[in-house]
Specification:
This protein is α/β, with parallel strands linked by helices and 611 residues long. The chain is built from twelve helices and 30 strands.
């Protein structure tokens, strides 16, 4: 069958897939490793609301083959192939997005099947094969680019040793970013996006009929950045630019909050039919996600809220939930920096009347992603806020191989570090170490305040940021609180917490520059100062956070040799500084001297062995 590739300008931009001419005049199709290749295929004419449901009763599989590797990738119905721009609901185009992991020559072979619920059953032997264009072809994958921020060039993030790590380079990645607004995708520039109903419910943020515009961030949009439909999207694209400019690298967002707090995010054509997807909306999401990855922002994809755990198939991996998860993977799984979060506040809670998933159902969800995501993205689960509620969920998941970690919610900030350390240790003892990230610090009504209400965020800095990271946390995301201005559902302007992003970036930069944190262990007992934290690699390196510093000592009984002491300001960052004591010796308890300034305030110390 002759090769024909449908290529609107949008998909050239999104896929980084180019056609160039060889010296003999023939076309060579090329794509950079780590960048998404989008292939389009013409099949039968249909629509989102067709009697024969194109999402349920058609199935596109594309086999990609390389001399060292073979991968089968699932495709999806794409309406006219340019729905982000046209808002089309009908057409004869199917697409596949593939992120090849090996340089060299690849071939592909695409097959479209039609049959009763074939998309869920995946029984091709019971379906008819449908003729499509462009079913076979060849392309070349080039080596990675050299960007130090764009995830397409840096490669895929995986869970490793209780942390995030780039699979190709082995470099570790510390997550730092925003947990709010959780309804980030409730943006008025996306097609068919609206709030089902306003809410004034106790325990959640108040909402009205307005959804996000991110108007304050239009100023952060830059010429050359993506938009759609004659300039839509500048607010949300600008918001991403702003957060990246502050050094942040992650955003937490829901893809389904029907029955939940915001009631304004879903993938479906309507909030009543869970078997039909809004093609243009999801293509517009993809433009945003591509930009987020290019700016170094990890996609923390939260699949459901506690209020809708049982909305799909009663919580089971039934046909509706299976279809939803398959569509997510097919459309967005190619992104290199992505975490699948099985659900916000998963488990039984007194404020939820709609039911909770069981241990079996949680494990079946995690297993589904490990068996069906060809890119093996990390799988985590968001917790309830205190030990009484979350223990019944987490205790049964300890040692379960298909769960890579937990997205921790904790209501009391002063005990957050010890909670992280305990959960990390429990998972190690189970034989399957978890990645634990401090993603929602309480209390529920307060969270991270705006700068004008808490200019230096001292308790967040001390406990939820440095305290948890020095206790083994793999990252931090900030929750805005339900009763705060610019809250968890209504926040339009990340700049309201500009100071918080700066303080967070100081910690991230310190860890990235000075610490092999993945090789270190929490050893808070080594510091004889109240409320101090210590992460160490014995006889080599010690990182300390000491609050209200007056005097303190470090127990180096198990260490040998000489150590240099340098000081770091957690609120202002900057270079390491010298205090009153330059060096100390291993073998016993050692005084750390006094800091270069700011006595009686919080300091970070780096105590490093002199080779």
């Amino acid at each position: 069958m002759p090769y024909r590739l449908l290529f609107p300008a949008l998909f050239i931009l999104l896929s980084c897939f180019v056609l160039s001419c060889d010296s003999d005049g023939s076309n060579t199709r090329t794509v950079q490793k780590g960048h998404a290749l989008t292939l389009s295929f013409e099949g039968p004419m249909t629509s989102e609301d067709a009697e024969v449901n194109p999402f349920l009763n058609y199935l596109l599989f594309v086999e990609f083959e390389h001399e060292e590797h073979q991968e089968t990738i699932r495709g999806f119905y794409a309406a006219d192939g340019n729905a982000a721009e046209t808002s089309a609901t009908s057409g004869n185009t199917w697409q596949v997005r593939f992120s090849p992991g090996h340089p060299g020559i690849w071939t592909y072979n695409a097959t479209l099947f039609k049959g009763d619920s074939v998309s869920v059953k995946q029984r091709q032997d019971e379906a008819d094969q449908i003729e499509i264009t462009n079913s076979q072809g060849t392309f070349e994958v080039l080596s990675n680019g050299d960007s130090d921020r764009d995830f397409h060039d840096r490669g895929k993030l995986i869970a490793s040793n209780g942390y995030l790590q780039f699979e190709d380079s082995g470099t570790y990645f510390l997550k730092a970013g925003s947990d709010s607004p959780e309804n980030f995708l409730a943006f008025q520039g996306f097609d068919d996006t609206y709030r089902i109903a306003a809410s004034d419910k106790e325990g959640e943020a108040q909402t009205d009929s307005e959804i996000h515009s991110y108007e304050p961030h239009i100023q952060d949009w830059n010429p050359g950045d993506p938009t759609w439909q004659d300039g839509k999207g500048k607010g949300i694209i600008g918001a991403v630019n702003y957060l990246a400019s502050k050094g942040m690298n992650a955003v937490y967002f829901l893809t389904l909050n029907i029955q939940g707090d915001g009631k304004d995010v879903w993938m479906f054509t309507t909030p009543e039919d869970f078997t039909r997807f809004d093609v243009s909306k999801l293509d517009q999401w993809e433009i945003l996600f591509q930009h987020m990855q290019a700016k170094g922002i990890l996609l923390h994809v939260v699949l459901q809220e506690t209020e809708n755990e049982t909305l799909l198939d009663g919580g089971d991996m039934g046909p509706v939930r299976t279809l939803y998860f398959h569509e997510l993977i097919a459309r967005f799984g190619h992104h290199p920096a992505l975490i699948w979060n099985l659900g916000e506040e998963n488990g039984l809670a007194p404020w939820v009347t709609t039911g909770a998933q069981t241990d079996r159902q949680r494990k079946e969800m995690a297993t589904f992603f490990k068996e069906n995501d060809p890119y093996n993205h990390p799988v985590v689960i968001h917790t309830l806020p205190n030990e009484e509620l979350r223990a019944p969920v987490l205790d049964s998941l300890l040692g379960f191989p298909h769960l890579d970690g937990i997205s921790l919610q904790h209501h009391e900030r002063t005990t957050a570090p010890e909670t992280v350390e305990r959960l990390k240790e429990q998972s190690k003892q189970s034989g399957h170490e978890w990645m634990v990230t401090m993603d929602e610090i309480g209390m529920w009504h307060t969270g991270a305040k705006v700068d004008t209400a808490d200019i230096s965020h001292p308790t967040l800095t001390r406990y939820a940021l440095w305290g948890t990271l020095l206790s083994g946390a793999a990252g931090v995301e900030w929750y805005f609180g339900a009763r705060s201005p610019h809250n968890d559902l209504t926040s339009e302007d990340w700049r309201q917490r500009d100071r918080l992003w700066e303080i967070t970036n100081h910690a991230k930069a310190f860890f990235e520059e000075y610490l092999p944190y993945w090789e270190m262990e929490p050893t808070h007992h080594l510091v004889n100062a109240e409320g101090a934290y210590c992460l160490s690699k014995t006889d080599s390196l010690y990182a300390l956070y000491i609050p209200d510093f007056t005097e303190a000592g470090l127990d180096l009984t198990d260490a040998t040799g000489q150590y240099q002491i340098r000081w770091f300001n957690p609120f202002e960052g900057g270079p390491l500084q010298e205090g009153s004591v330059d060096q100390i010796s291993g073998g016993n308890q050692q005084s750390l001297g006094v800091p270069p300034s700011r006595l009686n305030e919080d300091w970070v110390l780096l105590v490093e062995k002199i080779e």
